[in-house]
Design goal:
alpha+beta, five-stranded mixed beta sheet, 9 strands, 35% strand, globular
Length: 127
Amino acid sequence: MPTIRYLVADVDEAVAFYVERLGFTLSARMGPPFAIVERDGLELWLSGPQTSAARPMPDGSVPAPGGWNRLVLEVDDVDAFADRLRSAGVRFRNEPLSGPGGTQVLIEDPSGNPIELFAPRVTRPIV
């Protein structure tokens, strides 16, 4: 199963966001510092500040939420999905924009991790 790990500031807040706003289901909880949510065959590991993934590296750098690498969720209609999230107070990094492959918009989870909502312009061929 594909897995992504996101560092989050508050695991409870992150779980609520992914389950209530983006349609994930909670599949495991390892106490306050760690949870796993799933959607469409993807596991997303939510690691709080107390997890080993958040410990400083040998060079002193500290892993933190945010950045530009992102989880991409395909949706049928970016504008409609974005409208629902806006009305729920979700933070956006940009407005929806269209390119050759489809339409996308970047939102943030409560810790500032980016999520791209993407609607393809055409259905991808089955290989």
